[in-house]
Amino acid sequence: MTTEIFLQTLASGVLIGLIYALIAIGLTMIFGVMEIVNFAHGEFLMLGMYSSFWLFALYALDPMVTLPATVIMLFAVGVLLYRLIIVRIMHAPMLSQIFTTFGLMYLLRGLAQFFWKPDFRSIENSAVSGSVKILGIQLGTPQLVAGVGAIVVTGLIYFFLNKTRMGAALEATASDKEAARLMGIDSHKMFSLAWGIGAACAGAAGVLLSTFFPIFPDVGANFILLAFVVVNLGGFGSVTGAFWAGIIVGVMEVMGGLLLGPQYKTAVVLVMFLGVLMFRPQGLMGKA
Amino acid sequence: MKLLEVKQVSKRFGGLTANQDVSFTVDKGHIVGLIGPNGAGKTTMFNCVAGYFAPTEGSILLNGRNIAGLPPETCARAGVARTFQVARTFTSMTACENVMTAALLLQHNVGKARASAMQWLAFVNLQKFADKPAASMTISEQRRLAVARAMAIDPAILLMDEVMAGLNPSEVREAVDVVLKIRDRGTACLIVEHVLEGIMPIADKIVVLDRGVKIAEGTPQQVSNDPKVITAYLGD
Amino acid sequence: MKNTIFAIAAAALVLALPSMLDASHLNTVILVLMAAQLGVAWNMLGGYAGQVSLGHAAFVGLGAYTSTLLLIKFGVNPWIGIVAGGCMSAALSLAFGWSCFRLKGHYFSMATIAVAELVQIFFTEWEYGGTAVGLYVPMDHQGWLWMNFATKLPYYWLALGLLALTMLANLWIERSFLGYYFRAIKDEPDAARSVGVNIARYKQIALSVSAFFSAMGGSLYAQKELYIDPNSVLSTALSIKMALVSILGGVGTLFGPLVGSVVLTSIEEFTRAMFGGTGRGTDVIIYASMIIAIAVFYPTGLLGWVRSFKERGTARADAARQLAEHAASQQAKSGEAS
After folding, report:
1. Looking at this predicted complex, what is its ipTM?
2. Is the pTM of this model over 0.90?
3. How many domains does chain B have?
């Protein structure tokens, strides 16, 4: 294995890892604020991808241009799902919570399949297609842009959580719901916000992915398990943790594929997942 | 005759010391009250004796055998029963089934366990709830159920964690009666309690903890006159 | 008395059913029975002991592959193979339990997904096991001795028999001390420990028994379909389905999985008939909505819903009776007074 191949693999691992991080950030926020594991999170990604696709296919609008619109739309979808469904299972037994979001996962997939058919779609020749050579490493432009985009969005989230009042309120609700409520912070609003932002993050990741990844109703399945691994490795509830864990998982996945063969990419990640679950379940930076 | 000997037990959680060098004994068939202001480390001590925490230092002897660090189910088998601050009854079961689950420790026959469970329900005056779901009972009834359940493993000692909290005066009297009945059967009781008017009249001995350390041990009379105890409760 | 009549009627229906149906409907019924059997197996761990496994297909696949490989490579009779598959699965469940049981709640469920996916990847790459291409069950020996038939009817009896066996095992467990321990672990693990229940041991027992019966279901599947591959017997979709039939019908109940299986399969067949072909996802939409509805409004499943009707009915009847008695005694009293 030459240095070039190694660096190439490392770079592509980092780039895809940044996408995983973005997806996971949404997931970890939802868990951090309300302790619900959203099994339907991959479907927010899928919806983001389809939004990007249809705007491109029907109106010739580039994904990078429509990104903000898609993000806003997914934010609304997240809030809507919270208010219609999730709010009813906040105090339900865990089995109910698991199966509600599971049901949602299937429902969204089924609806996507019904309205848009199971065919694989793709976005060809968008503004970011092609490849570039940086420091001797060949990188696909869409992947590079996606990686950068993920960093930007993560940065925005980080800024929001740490430098704005509403972000502080969200963090307060995450660390102690009751105390936050006593200080006048409306938990209900915070939960809606968490779902909205969570969905928006996954939606943004979807748009970024849509420039180079096939789009189909079940695409969420490809990413949800990885998202869980990242959330777990980073620590449930930790945005910074999810960021670094995403990069680690991306690199490990791609490296594992290089060293053991592409059919074992997922296996490498899963073994790492089990290892983390068993030996450090709270992850790198999580609250236990 | 010493049944339980807590010997120089310390329990630390990272930088926090919950119990520091605590020693006391409980004699067979005695009632010992464990009291102290909030944060004194009473429940931590309880959890150490019942096996939910392993003491950082020290030993806990039950009939001469060191049970410190053994898991809860082993401590139960050895003769330590306990109740929890929240009753934690098995909500998918009836009252009788709750007690049966405990009785099954002694032998696995379901029929015999049911007979034993019915006796223990009668012991705490809950026999008419036998086939009612535990979840439908009131808090004080569930607490009595928890006591019946704990007794069904035929323990040598019963640890009760704030069993009188939040009860009105007549309920406190009922709880006291149950404790006395348990003692009269020959089971020792170690009781963490804030409701002093419940525990002081019936205890053979009182142990006082404050901020993780034992500050007094003696008869209820001695302890209530001890200036250190008074200061601990009233603050300086 | 009512129960006995009901039981006799049910038995009569079950015995007469095959003669009333054509081949394809009979096949549907067999699928219902097989899905129910897997659900009952899942329920032992998930519904009774409260450990929600979302990777149970691993055990189904282990059973299917064990019995099939034993048959193809060593000529072992499937009747022996089916038990061997069960034992193999139960043995491997020890590793599953050791790695996953220390985890609680969501973490446990996620770990089960990961373990099952790893098992699927293993079988997809394992050449001896046929990789992704799968294995074909040979047709050279037929009849009851070799659990291999050209017609559907014998598979009906097999599926029925296995379901009955699994339910009997479940019933026996439910009534024994194990049943109490499992429920205690599900409700209040710490309190269970306080009365001497070794949680790790009994969770493992629930898992091993559950794995054993799941594996037997897998072997039956292999013998019926005569073809297995990682996608059919090891997929996450299968794992979800096993959990789903119990949740729909009623976790922790004996007949829940059967009810759930009937409902789920009916929906699948109905939407296939209505919309043709793959159904364009309509069956998924319907039962996804049902799952959400049940999870949100009736966590005790369809059986729980029916039961609550009966209870409300009894409660109302009780209340009515009490009112009537009260009114009667009031009348009697006023009769005495005057």
Report:
1. 0.92
2. no
3. 2
